[in-house]
Amino acid sequence: MSASTVAVIVPATTANIGPGFDCVGAALTLYNQFEFSLLAAAHPLEITVSGVGAERVKPDASNLVYQAFVKLYQHLDRSPPPVHIAINMNVPLARGLGSSATAIVGGLVGANHLAGLPLTQAEVMQLAIAIEGHPDNVVPALIGGCQLAASGSDRPWEICDLEWDAAIVPVVAIPDFELSTAEARRVLPDQYSRTDAIFNTAHLGLLIRALATGNADWLRSALDDRIHQPYRQALIPGYEAVREAAIGAGAYGMVISGAGPTLLALANSDTVGAVEVALADAWVAQGVSVEVKGLQVDRQGAISEFKSV
Q1: pLDDT above 60: residue 2
Q2: Taking 90 as the threshold, does the pLDDT of residue 306 lie above it?
Q3: Is the pLDDT of residue 55 over 70?
Q4: Which residues contact 222 (CB under 8 A, 6 or more apart)?
Q5: The domain containing residue 147 runs over which residues?
Q6: Residues 47 and 94 placed together within one structural domain of the fold
Protein backbone atom coordinates (compact mmCIF):
# COMPACT_ATOMS: atom_id res chain seq x y z
CA MET A 1 0.00 0.00 0.00
CA SER A 2 0.97 3.63 -0.37
CA ALA A 3 2.31 5.76 2.48
CA SER A 4 -0.99 7.63 2.62
CA THR A 5 -4.54 6.35 2.68
CA VAL A 6 -7.77 8.25 2.15
CA ALA A 7 -10.26 7.35 4.89
CA VAL A 8 -13.94 8.08 4.25
CA ILE A 9 -16.81 7.66 6.73
CA VAL A 10 -20.34 7.82 5.29
CA PRO A 11 -23.60 7.84 7.30
CA ALA A 12 -26.62 5.65 6.76
CA THR A 13 -29.77 7.40 5.60
CA THR A 14 -33.51 7.11 5.94
CA ALA A 15 -35.45 8.23 2.88
CA ASN A 16 -39.03 9.29 2.14
CA ILE A 17 -40.02 9.85 5.80
CA GLY A 18 -43.68 9.34 4.92
CA PRO A 19 -44.87 11.74 2.21
CA GLY A 20 -41.39 12.74 0.97
CA PHE A 21 -41.20 9.92 -1.56
CA ASP A 22 -37.98 10.02 -3.63
CA CYS A 23 -37.19 13.61 -2.57
CA VAL A 24 -36.59 13.74 1.23
CA GLY A 25 -33.92 11.94 3.18
CA ALA A 26 -31.96 12.30 6.41
CA ALA A 27 -28.51 11.12 7.46
CA LEU A 28 -28.34 8.96 10.60
CA THR A 29 -25.62 8.26 13.17
CA LEU A 30 -24.79 4.81 11.78
CA TYR A 31 -21.76 4.54 9.49
CA ASN A 32 -19.86 2.60 6.84
CA GLN A 33 -16.12 3.18 6.59
CA PHE A 34 -13.91 3.05 3.50
CA GLU A 35 -10.15 3.34 3.03
CA PHE A 36 -8.48 3.86 -0.36
CA SER A 37 -4.76 3.27 -0.88
CA LEU A 38 -2.83 3.49 -4.14
CA LEU A 39 -1.18 0.26 -5.31
CA ALA A 40 1.65 -0.64 -7.63
CA ALA A 41 0.55 -1.11 -11.23
CA ALA A 42 1.00 -4.88 -10.92
CA HIS A 43 -2.05 -4.98 -8.64
CA PRO A 44 -4.87 -3.01 -10.31
CA LEU A 45 -7.49 -3.75 -7.65
CA GLU A 46 -7.68 -5.25 -4.19
CA ILE A 47 -10.82 -5.13 -2.02
CA THR A 48 -11.20 -6.36 1.54
CA VAL A 49 -14.54 -6.29 3.35
CA SER A 50 -15.39 -6.65 7.04
CA GLY A 51 -18.41 -6.05 9.23
CA VAL A 52 -22.15 -6.64 8.83
CA GLY A 53 -22.92 -8.72 5.72
CA ALA A 54 -19.30 -8.67 4.56
CA GLU A 55 -19.53 -12.17 3.11
CA ARG A 56 -22.12 -10.97 0.59
CA VAL A 57 -20.09 -8.09 -0.82
CA LYS A 58 -18.11 -8.95 -3.95
CA PRO A 59 -14.40 -8.04 -3.73
CA ASP A 60 -13.97 -7.47 -7.46
CA ALA A 61 -14.57 -4.86 -10.18
CA SER A 62 -18.36 -5.27 -9.85
CA ASN A 63 -18.22 -3.82 -6.32
CA LEU A 64 -20.37 -0.68 -6.15
CA VAL A 65 -17.71 1.27 -4.24
CA TYR A 66 -15.20 0.57 -7.00
CA GLN A 67 -17.72 1.30 -9.74
CA ALA A 68 -18.32 4.75 -8.23
CA PHE A 69 -14.55 5.21 -7.84
CA VAL A 70 -14.07 4.47 -11.55
CA LYS A 71 -17.01 6.68 -12.51
CA LEU A 72 -15.35 9.76 -11.07
CA TYR A 73 -12.16 9.14 -13.01
CA GLN A 74 -14.18 8.56 -16.18
CA HIS A 75 -15.92 11.88 -15.53
CA LEU A 76 -12.46 13.47 -15.38
CA ASP A 77 -11.45 11.62 -18.57
CA ARG A 78 -8.66 9.94 -16.64
CA SER A 79 -7.75 6.30 -16.07
CA PRO A 80 -8.42 5.09 -12.52
CA PRO A 81 -5.25 4.22 -10.59
CA PRO A 82 -4.57 0.80 -9.06
CA VAL A 83 -6.17 0.87 -5.64
CA HIS A 84 -6.75 -1.13 -2.49
CA ILE A 85 -10.20 -0.54 -0.96
CA ALA A 86 -10.91 -1.62 2.61
CA ILE A 87 -14.62 -1.60 3.50
CA ASN A 88 -15.95 -1.87 7.04
CA MET A 89 -19.74 -2.22 7.11
CA ASN A 90 -22.14 -1.26 9.88
CA VAL A 91 -25.12 -0.38 7.65
CA PRO A 92 -26.96 -3.62 6.76
CA LEU A 93 -27.63 -4.46 3.12
CA ALA A 94 -31.08 -4.22 1.52
CA ARG A 95 -32.79 -2.92 4.65
CA GLY A 96 -33.83 0.59 3.61
CA LEU A 97 -30.96 2.41 5.30
CA GLY A 98 -29.04 3.56 2.24
CA SER A 99 -26.23 1.00 2.12
CA SER A 100 -25.85 1.50 -1.64
CA ALA A 101 -25.73 5.26 -1.15
CA THR A 102 -22.84 4.89 1.31
CA ALA A 103 -20.99 2.82 -1.30
CA ILE A 104 -21.56 5.38 -4.06
CA VAL A 105 -20.65 8.36 -1.91
CA GLY A 106 -17.65 6.55 -0.40
CA GLY A 107 -16.29 5.60 -3.81
CA LEU A 108 -16.74 9.08 -5.26
CA VAL A 109 -15.27 10.92 -2.28
CA GLY A 110 -12.29 8.55 -2.08
CA ALA A 111 -11.60 8.92 -5.79
CA ASN A 112 -11.93 12.69 -5.65
CA HIS A 113 -9.31 12.86 -2.88
CA LEU A 114 -6.84 10.59 -4.66
CA ALA A 115 -7.36 12.61 -7.85
CA GLY A 116 -6.39 15.82 -6.06
CA LEU A 117 -9.89 17.18 -5.26
CA PRO A 118 -10.74 18.37 -8.80
CA LEU A 119 -14.50 18.31 -8.11
CA THR A 120 -16.44 20.42 -5.64
CA GLN A 121 -18.86 18.79 -3.21
CA ALA A 122 -21.75 20.01 -5.39
CA GLU A 123 -20.22 18.35 -8.45
CA VAL A 124 -19.64 15.11 -6.54
CA MET A 125 -23.28 15.26 -5.42
CA GLN A 126 -24.61 15.62 -8.97
CA LEU A 127 -22.49 12.63 -10.01
CA ALA A 128 -23.79 10.58 -7.06
CA ILE A 129 -27.40 11.35 -8.00
CA ALA A 130 -26.69 10.32 -11.61
CA ILE A 131 -25.30 6.97 -10.45
CA GLU A 132 -28.06 6.24 -7.90
CA GLY A 133 -30.88 7.53 -10.10
CA HIS A 134 -32.60 9.53 -7.35
CA PRO A 135 -31.32 11.92 -4.68
CA ASP A 136 -33.05 11.01 -1.44
CA ASN A 137 -30.28 8.78 -0.03
CA VAL A 138 -27.05 9.96 -1.66
CA VAL A 139 -27.58 13.67 -0.91
CA PRO A 140 -27.85 13.39 2.91
CA ALA A 141 -25.17 10.67 2.89
CA LEU A 142 -22.81 13.19 1.29
CA ILE A 143 -23.73 16.43 3.05
CA GLY A 144 -25.59 15.30 6.20
CA GLY A 145 -28.75 16.60 7.81
CA CYS A 146 -32.25 16.29 6.39
CA GLN A 147 -32.42 17.29 2.74
CA LEU A 148 -35.11 18.01 0.15
CA ALA A 149 -34.09 17.60 -3.50
CA ALA A 150 -35.94 18.98 -6.52
CA SER A 151 -35.04 18.75 -10.19
CA GLY A 152 -35.68 21.01 -13.14
CA SER A 153 -35.99 19.87 -16.73
CA ASP A 154 -32.84 21.73 -17.80
CA ARG A 155 -31.15 22.47 -14.47
CA PRO A 156 -29.05 20.55 -11.93
CA TRP A 157 -30.76 19.26 -8.82
CA GLU A 158 -31.62 21.92 -6.27
CA ILE A 159 -30.95 20.88 -2.68
CA CYS A 160 -32.73 22.45 0.29
CA ASP A 161 -31.59 21.82 3.85
CA LEU A 162 -34.55 21.05 6.13
CA GLU A 163 -34.48 21.85 9.82
CA TRP A 164 -34.87 18.87 12.15
CA ASP A 165 -35.74 19.75 15.73
CA ALA A 166 -33.20 18.13 18.05
CA ALA A 167 -36.00 16.84 20.31
CA ILE A 168 -37.26 14.51 17.54
CA VAL A 169 -35.47 11.17 17.91
CA PRO A 170 -35.32 8.72 14.98
CA VAL A 171 -35.64 5.09 16.07
CA VAL A 172 -34.96 2.37 13.50
CA ALA A 173 -36.20 -1.20 13.78
CA ILE A 174 -34.11 -3.40 11.47
CA PRO A 175 -35.60 -6.87 10.86
CA ASP A 176 -33.59 -9.95 9.94
CA PHE A 177 -35.05 -10.15 6.43
CA GLU A 178 -34.32 -8.14 3.31
CA LEU A 179 -36.43 -6.25 0.78
CA SER A 180 -34.89 -5.12 -2.48
CA THR A 181 -35.61 -1.65 -3.80
CA ALA A 182 -36.60 -3.17 -7.13
CA GLU A 183 -39.22 -5.37 -5.47
CA ALA A 184 -40.54 -2.45 -3.42
CA ARG A 185 -40.90 -0.34 -6.58
CA ARG A 186 -42.69 -3.07 -8.52
CA VAL A 187 -45.72 -2.88 -6.22
CA LEU A 188 -46.25 0.84 -6.84
CA PRO A 189 -48.96 1.95 -9.29
CA ASP A 190 -48.12 3.76 -12.51
CA GLN A 191 -50.70 6.47 -11.87
CA TYR A 192 -52.20 8.23 -8.86
CA SER A 193 -55.44 10.12 -8.38
CA ARG A 194 -55.56 13.88 -8.06
CA THR A 195 -56.88 13.42 -4.53
CA ASP A 196 -53.85 11.38 -3.50
CA ALA A 197 -51.45 13.85 -5.16
CA ILE A 198 -53.01 16.75 -3.26
CA PHE A 199 -52.97 14.74 -0.03
CA ASN A 200 -49.24 14.07 -0.31
CA THR A 201 -48.42 17.63 -1.34
CA ALA A 202 -50.18 18.95 1.75
CA HIS A 203 -48.59 16.39 4.04
CA LEU A 204 -45.09 17.03 2.70
CA GLY A 205 -45.52 20.72 3.49
CA LEU A 206 -46.77 19.82 6.96
CA LEU A 207 -43.85 17.40 7.47
CA ILE A 208 -41.32 20.14 6.70
CA ARG A 209 -42.89 22.47 9.28
CA ALA A 210 -43.35 19.68 11.84
CA LEU A 211 -39.71 18.59 11.66
CA ALA A 212 -38.55 22.20 12.00
CA THR A 213 -40.75 23.08 14.95
CA GLY A 214 -41.21 19.77 16.76
CA ASN A 215 -44.97 20.40 16.82
CA ALA A 216 -46.34 17.06 18.00
CA ASP A 217 -49.81 17.37 16.47
CA TRP A 218 -48.40 18.37 13.08
CA LEU A 219 -45.89 15.54 13.17
CA ARG A 220 -48.51 12.89 13.96
CA SER A 221 -50.52 13.93 10.89
CA ALA A 222 -47.56 14.71 8.63
CA LEU A 223 -46.23 11.15 8.46
CA ASP A 224 -49.30 9.91 6.56
CA ASP A 225 -48.69 9.04 2.92
CA ARG A 226 -50.67 7.70 -0.06
CA ILE A 227 -47.91 7.32 -2.66
CA HIS A 228 -45.77 4.39 -1.51
CA GLN A 229 -46.48 3.13 2.00
CA PRO A 230 -49.99 1.72 1.44
CA TYR A 231 -48.58 -0.49 -1.33
CA ARG A 232 -45.38 -1.57 0.41
CA GLN A 233 -46.87 -2.49 3.77
CA ALA A 234 -47.90 -5.91 2.50
CA LEU A 235 -44.23 -6.70 1.81
CA ILE A 236 -43.37 -6.22 5.49
CA PRO A 237 -44.83 -8.93 7.77
CA GLY A 238 -46.29 -7.53 10.98
CA TYR A 239 -46.19 -3.92 9.78
CA GLU A 240 -49.52 -2.84 11.27
CA ALA A 241 -48.91 -4.56 14.62
CA VAL A 242 -45.50 -2.92 14.93
CA ARG A 243 -46.92 0.48 14.00
CA GLU A 244 -49.69 0.24 16.57
CA ALA A 245 -47.19 -0.79 19.25
CA ALA A 246 -44.88 2.13 18.48
CA ILE A 247 -47.69 4.69 18.59
CA GLY A 248 -49.10 3.09 21.74
CA ALA A 249 -45.71 3.55 23.39
CA GLY A 250 -45.71 7.26 22.58
CA ALA A 251 -44.16 7.56 19.12
CA TYR A 252 -45.43 10.41 16.95
CA GLY A 253 -45.77 7.90 14.14
CA MET A 254 -43.98 5.22 12.16
CA VAL A 255 -42.98 5.03 8.51
CA ILE A 256 -41.12 2.71 6.17
CA SER A 257 -37.46 3.68 5.96
CA GLY A 258 -36.57 3.99 2.29
CA ALA A 259 -37.87 0.95 0.45
CA GLY A 260 -37.98 -1.04 3.71
CA PRO A 261 -38.15 -3.37 5.49
CA THR A 262 -36.59 -1.22 8.24
CA LEU A 263 -39.23 0.82 10.01
CA LEU A 264 -38.59 4.33 11.32
CA ALA A 265 -40.42 5.64 14.36
CA LEU A 266 -40.13 9.25 15.49
CA ALA A 267 -40.20 9.81 19.23
CA ASN A 268 -39.05 12.33 21.83
CA SER A 269 -36.53 11.94 24.63
CA ASP A 270 -39.25 11.04 27.14
CA THR A 271 -40.73 8.21 25.08
CA VAL A 272 -37.77 6.89 23.08
CA GLY A 273 -36.98 4.09 25.55
CA ALA A 274 -40.55 2.82 25.60
CA VAL A 275 -40.77 3.06 21.80
CA GLU A 276 -37.59 1.01 21.37
CA VAL A 277 -38.96 -1.75 23.61
CA ALA A 278 -42.37 -1.70 21.90
CA LEU A 279 -40.86 -1.98 18.42
CA ALA A 280 -38.71 -4.94 19.44
CA ASP A 281 -41.45 -6.77 21.35
CA ALA A 282 -44.06 -6.31 18.62
CA TRP A 283 -41.87 -7.71 15.87
CA VAL A 284 -40.61 -10.59 18.00
CA ALA A 285 -44.28 -11.42 18.66
CA GLN A 286 -44.65 -11.72 14.88
CA GLY A 287 -41.78 -14.22 14.81
CA VAL A 288 -39.26 -11.74 13.40
CA SER A 289 -35.84 -11.12 14.94
CA VAL A 290 -35.08 -7.41 14.98
CA GLU A 291 -32.40 -4.92 16.01
CA VAL A 292 -33.70 -1.60 17.33
CA LYS A 293 -31.50 1.49 17.48
CA GLY A 294 -32.28 4.94 18.82
CA LEU A 295 -30.17 7.28 16.66
CA GLN A 296 -29.72 10.97 15.89
CA VAL A 297 -29.60 12.94 12.66
CA ASP A 298 -26.00 13.11 11.43
CA ARG A 299 -25.19 16.75 10.65
CA GLN A 300 -21.83 16.30 8.88
CA GLY A 301 -22.36 13.79 6.09
CA ALA A 302 -19.34 12.08 4.55
CA ILE A 303 -16.08 12.80 6.37
CA SER A 304 -12.76 12.20 4.64
CA GLU A 305 -9.10 12.67 5.38
CA PHE A 306 -5.64 11.52 4.35
CA LYS A 307 -3.93 9.44 6.97
CA SER A 308 -0.53 7.78 7.26
CA VAL A 309 -0.40 4.00 7.43
Answers
A1: no
A2: no
A3: yes
A4: 18, 19, 203, 206, 207, 209, 210, 211, 253
A5: 4-162+297-308
A6: yes
